[in-house]
């Protein structure tokens, strides 16, 4: 009887415990997953324009539109200027409207805290901060002139931001800890110094010419063999010193105007990264004391137009300074890239280091976005994806028009059904991603007992998305791409979700049965995680000939299950 009672109590209370638990990160093999209400979640997100959530009326029609476009998560701004118009006086009415709108559509929210910095600049702080430049000092450029960027070296700046952020997190706990509508928070936005390689205010000059803090030298000693290679390089070149000024420990920076990949002004960048991380880490930690849910930071990337610190917001969370963020901001759970540059795969590979979970908070959507998304899920255990500006542009008084549906909306629809099987396979080594384009038009890897090769199905105008939500917007030939993910179901069975691809299979070891052919190919979908078998594909709808090999044809977005067999 006692055992029976215990069983009943566990059955009732365990699911409730899972429900009561705040959103958190959990490891599964090599993957880090976002857990909400006792389950892992794949965020199929979209970020709203910066000003969309600053008016209750304006934001109202957005939520049903997002639902219609198959988003399950919306990334939206909560700004310091709107929540604390007077010092210590808080107003969360915009947040209430966001929660209400999202909940009515069953959407989750990732809140973007626009506090001290947004795209490097300090433009979202309340007027009482903006105008009081003596109490809230700005950074200074090389010539000692103030810039519209709050200095990271000021404790007053940091503490004022942290107080507001803690009040926000406390409020979210109060109104949302039973709902978990808010699943994650971005702390600040694309922070970093601009127009100058580092802050040159008096406090910054003193710090730069003073000793590297013990927190950092201890970290360097402890992680000597696992530091980012860019950091190891400069530290090693300067003799692995564990004391001295920033230039004694990391060297005097060089400048290479010919190659943006080179680490120009790197010591200044390391210095700024430490100070941004320390500040943002403090803000996040104060927020977590009030309500502990996952928090991340996003980066404006280095690139040909933004080759070094000051050209891109320097000290922001780029992988070359990941150690500085890990050292000085342990309350930050992940560093995430905003990817608008063409070298998307290079950037994702760069961020996939030191166990950093993969989340893309800003990027492009459309067909190219859909291909990249599928690749990222398969190859990098992606936690979530979010194109920017998904609510479209309109002015007050205009009737909102649903943005044109595209390949991404169709892909999100497909992925919603199959997120269960994706999440089960994350981090297990049974899933891979595919991405091919005009420059790299074929890709091969081994998964299970087969070498899988993908190439572009079409190099010309993309096949229209079709389907119920519209057609694909125009795409230039330079952007023609194919993308997919492959899950090995065991033995000779594979599941592939893909677009604009040919996917062929060859045995790794020919062995006694060297030849391979198709037993069956089915297309289908997933509904609530359950496979819904559709057409049996054969003939023209597969690659099953001596000429084209063995495998799948995926000119349009589809999910296909293939069962192979061997013969001689
Ligand atoms: C990156 C920023 O993080 C966003 O807030 C927005 O300004 C976009 N750029 C605009 O492209």
Question: Mind explaining what this structure looks like?
Answer:
A hairpin with a 2-residue loop joins strand 16 and strand 17 (450-456). The protein is globular. It is α/β, with parallel strands linked by helices and 568 residues long. The relative contact order is 0.10. 31% of the residues lie in helices and 27% in strands. The longest helix is centred in the middle third of the chain and has 25 residues, at 266-290. The protein contains 16 helices and 25 strands. Residues 464-475 have low confidence and may be disordered. The chain starts with a helix and ends with a strand. The protein binds (2R,3S,4R,5S)-2-(hydroxymethyl)piperidine-3,4,5-triol. (2R,3S,4R,5S)-2-(hydroxymethyl)piperidine-3,4,5-triol binds at residues 50, 119, 189-190, 338, 362, 388.
List the helices and strands and how they pair.
Elements: H1 2-20, E1 24-28, E2 31-36, E3 39-41, E4 43-47, H2 56-59, H3 62-68, E5 73-79, H4 80-83, H5 93-104, E6 108-118, H6 127-130, E7 138-140, E8 146-150, H7 155-176, E9 182-189, H8 202-209, H9 214-222, H10 229-237, H11 246-250, H12 266-290, E10 295-300, H13 322-328, E11 334-339, H14 344-351, E12 359-360, E13 362-363, H15 366-380, E14 384-385, H16 407-425, E15 431-437, E16 442-447, E17 450-456, E18 481-490, E19 493-499, E20 501-507, E21 515-527, E22 530-537, E23 542-545, E24 549-554, E25 558-567
The structure holds (2R,3S,4R,5S)-2-(hydroxymethyl)piperidine-3,4,5-triol.
